[in-house]
Amino acid sequence: MTGDNWSLRESKTFDRNSIDYIRSAAATGLYRIRGFGAKRRVPSFDDLLMKGASMSRYPLEGYRERCGTDVALGTRHASKPIELKIPVTISGMSFGSLSANAKEALGRGASEAGTSTTTGDGGMTLEEREHSEKLVYQYLPSRYGMNPDDLRKADAIEVVVGQGAKPGGGGMLLGQKITRRVAEMRCLPEGIDQRSACRHPDWTGPDDLAIKILELREITGWEKPIYVKCGAARPYYDTALSIKAGADVVVIDGMQGGTAATQEVFIEHVGQPTLVAVKEAVQALCDFDMHRKVQLVVGGGIRSGADVAKALAMGADAVSIGTAALIAIGDQDPSLDEEYKKIGSAPGFWEDYQAGNDPAGITTQDPELTARLDPVLAGRRLANYLRVLAMESQTLARACGKSHVHNLEPDDMVALTVEAAAMAGVPLAGTNWIPGKETG
After folding, report:
1. Least packed by Cβ within 10 Å: which of 34, 72, 144, 188?
2. 165 burial type by CB count under 10 A (0-12 exposed, 13-18 middle, 19+ buried)
3. Contact, 165 vs 262, CB < 8 A?
4. Is 372 in contact with 335 (CB distance < 8 Å)?
5. pLDDT at residue 195, rounded to an integer
């Protein structure tokens, strides 16, 4: 190789993305804000494989032997737990971040598939409540749009402590997306940038959380399940403290989870991978003899039925999806390639959810753009996708000889890398070795 060719090598430390970041920061004095989710490679469910069954265990015949997918959330204290047909829920995404048509589409699709949706920051919309058979109301640090009447209209309440894309930080909604309706719901000035709080204003720890959960139970007559949602910061202790505070359901969100808008430094450098979140949360539930008594919902980068099955095998009761649901209803659609080019991007790469110029009409409040999304068709697409996730998870469960997806267990999996084996707590393929676990 000649000296000239050597000079063309790209630096691993200062690659073109790092150089672009430095130049942008130097030119503007502003940090980068974006949506979507983490783009760095971290150990994930792709690094795990299901063993299947052969001689030592027999698989189930898919055409003759049933494999259940139903799950009940909130059985610990609530008099009316949420009964779902599939173990896949739609995570919280706010009206304001999403258009009203997008919220309606999510409700339609989830209801058709037999699962729940979640409101997100900013309150409950009529479109979402009317079209969501089961709706979880998020109670966030910002308290935007919160009122007791909507709490009572919900089927469950989710107290949000943190989110996978930004544990320890709040989200952003820029002024171009704060229309009159959004502003009125959130009691904000129209057209002014809004930043959500990073912690609840009236409590500072688990004892205060316990008081808040009791207050929410009394407001709703002890009917509604109370979820507590945390980002994957310290999953073991956050799960343990949520149990102690009286939660019916714990929701843990890994760092692969998406967001509508926050600092890129949060998205890429804060939180832990979903594999870690599942293992540590399940360990806490087991240590307190609460596994399956307090249900665990896991989110952060869930895309396929394989991801669902692996999360359940690790001990989760259900998973939540956000980014995948948006893609199902039309986000990143290749048919809009020319529209994405006009705003300097391309399908699969577009990340400026905060800009309010989404060609698909999903993450925008622009009336002309939102009209592009047909909520009926989009809802049907989401329902199709959710059914596929359920069928794929059933297929893998049957292949492992299980008559219900919740019968999957860590023994049904192996890891392809040392890192994934350590994070998931399953053996490295071809060995009995789980890194970090003492062997007798």
Report:
1. 72
2. buried
3. yes
4. no
5. 86
**Residue whose structure tokens are 């589409």:** 105
Q: Can you give the three-state secondary structure of the chain, one letter per residue?
A: CCHHHHCCCCCCCCCHHHHHHHHHHHHHCCCCEEEECCCCCCCCHHHEEECCCCCCCCCCCCCCCCCECCEEECCCCCCCCEEECCCEEECECCECCECHHHHHHHHHHHHHHCCCEECCCCCCCHHHHHHCCCEEEEECCCCCCCCHHHHHHCCEEEEECCCCCCCCCCCEECHHHCCHHHHHHHCCCCCCCEECCCCCCCCCCHHHHHHHHHHHHHHCCCCCCEEEEEECCCHHHHHHHHHHHCCCEEEEECCCCCEEEEEHHHHHHCCCCHHHHHHHHHHHHHHCCCECCEEEEEECCCCCHHHHHHHHHCCCCEEEECHHHHHHHCCCCHHHHHHHHHCCCCCCCCCCHHHCCCCCCCCCCCHHHHCCCCHHHHHHHHHHHHHHHHHHHHHHHHHCCCCEHHHCCHHHEEECCHHHHHHHCCCECCCCCCCCCCCC
Residue with tokens 């407001």: 219
Neighbours of 403 (CB within 10 A): 13
Task: Show the low-confidence residues of the chain (pLDDT under 50).
Answer: 1
Q: Taking the model in full, what pTM does it have?
A: 0.95
pLDDT at residue 380, as a whole number? 98
